[in-house]
Amino acid sequence: MAVLKRIDNNTLTFDDKITVRPRDFVSHREFSIATKYPKGAALPVRELLDYMISESDGTACDVLMRMLGGPEAVTINLREWGVNDIKLVTYESDMFKTPSVSFLNWSSPEAMVQLLKLLQTEKVLSAERRDILLSLMIKSRPGQQRIKGLLPPGTMVAHKTGTSDTIDGVTTATNDVGIITLPNGQHLAIAVFVSTTKADEKTREDVIAKFARAASDCWFEPPQR
Fold first, then answer.
1. What is the number of H-type helices and E-type strands within the chain?
2. How far apart (Å, rounded) are the C-alpha atoms in residues 118 and 133?
3. Which label site among 47, 150, 173, 187 has the fewest CB atoms less than 10 Å from its CB?
């Protein structure tokens, strides 16, 4: 949202290019900057946003956050928007090298839902930029068995996952946040964080899926026949 806000303010464009070097690489998954551009490249903001949101590529996240002025600058943006219970201190690369520092970045589920509501209701971004971000979230590849896991087929979900490494059998974070479009056209913002657990990935994702299904069922009642 902070990147798109700068585009709304005409201080940045989708076509502006940012150089990504091999030393910036965080993720080496199949669909990542490191895999497609192993020698690095100057990539447009549009492509970096796609990697960050749709592929959860930590490399793109770090590069864009540095361009914005770092975690502190993004945290200042959040405060300006009235979101107080999210704090960014460190980069994805730092968390990859030293997993314990991941606890320096934090959010409450309530604050994340607040941020999603600001996005959906155009309180921060213009309708055009909001729709671009939502489209990237809708096509997000990771976490298909989380919020979307138990929802009816075809349910539109704009979501963004967050996942830590598993160290000594403990996974610090298995998260998914998003906006569910209900059958009546209304929207439901939801954030589910599964923290510091020895449960396997399927169990963690099932927990998220069950919460999402319960919330969806609670807020939407099919018309009585």
1. 9, 8
2. 13
3. 187
54: three-class secondary structure by DSSP: helix
> Does residue 204 sit within a domain?
yes
Mind giving me the DSSP string for 126-194? -HHHHHHHHHHHHT--S-TTTTTTTSPTT--EEEEEEEPPEETTEEEEEEEEEEEE-TTS-EEEEEEEE
Predicted TM-score of the model (pTM): 0.94
The pLDDT value given to residue 221: 67
What is the spatial distance between Cα 140 and Cα 154, in angstroms, rounded to a whole number?
15
Please answer whether residues 208 and 147 qualify as being in contact, where contact means their C-beta atoms are separated by less than 8 angstroms: yes
CB 64 within 8 A of CB 6: no
pLDDT at 220: 80
> 193 lies in a domain?
yes
The candidate with the shortest Cα–Cα distance to 147, out of 106, 190, 183, is 190
The answer to whether the beta carbons of residues 172 and 151 sit under 8 Å apart is: no
End-to-end CA distance of the chain: 42
Domain harbouring 170, CATH code: 3.30.160
- Beta-carbon contacts of 48 under 8 Å, excluding residues fewer than 6 positions away, are 18, 20, 60, 63, 64
- The secondary structure of residue 124, as a DSSP letter, is S
3-state secondary structure of 42: strand
- Whether residue 191 lies inside any domain: the answer is yes
Mean pLDDT, the chain cut into blocks of 10 residues (225 residues total): 98 98 91 97 99 97 98 98 98 92 95 99 97 98 97 97 94 97 96 98 98 94 59
- Domain assignment of residue 186, yes or no: yes
Supply the range of the domain harboring residue 209. Answer: 142-220
